[in-house]
Amino acid sequence: MSIGLITLNDILATGMLCFILFRAFTGTQKGDTLVTKTIAYALNTGLLTCIGSATVLVLIAVSVDKLYYCAVYIFFVKLYANSLLAMLNWRRAARETTLRETVFEFSTIPWGLSVRSEV
């Protein structure tokens, strides 16, 4: 019963996150690129955990008296932890990429100088 709720939770969380992000398109190239990357990342990690929990659910349903699901469940727990750590690392990398791509141009200076922000 609990693994079924975990599977349902994974599916709903991934679906709602993608739905909300899909509605967040701004119309600007930089904003839309960030939203698209976030949707792709959410689908990659969310679908991976959904597949893992569904696999455990199927193994429990198929082999009730055997413990085949334990091997997959151990892998599944590590998958959750790695997905969380990857998400936290991705947020920092996405933020640094956004800051590095910021370009300030001084159009009032006749020499055409531009300053790039290097973080």
Task: List the topology elements.
Layout: H1 2-22, H2 29-62, H3 69-100, E1 103-105, E2 114-116
Antiparallel strand pairs: 1-2
Helix pairs in contact: 1-2, 2-3
Brief overview, please?
Keywords: Membrane, Transmembrane, Transmembrane helix. The chain is mainly α and 119 residues long. Helices cover 73% and strands 5% of the residues.
Helical fraction equals over 70%
What structural class do helix, strand and pairing data support? mainly alpha
Strand content: 5-15%
Let me know the largest β-sheet: 2 strands, antiparallel
Order of helices and strands: HHHEE
Compute the average pLDDT. Answer: 77
Whole-number tally of structural domains: 1
**Oligomeric state of shown chains:** single chain
Strand order of the largest sheet: 1-2
Give structural notes.
This protein is mainly alpha-helical and 119 residues long. It has one domain. Helix content is 73%, strand content 5%. The chain is built from three helices and two strands; from the N terminus they run H-H-H-E-E. The protein has a two-stranded antiparallel sheet. A hairpin with an 8-residue loop joins strand 1 and strand 2. Helix 1 packs antiparallel against helix 2 and helix 2 runs antiparallel to helix 3. It starts with a helix and ends with a strand. About 11% of the residues have low confidence.
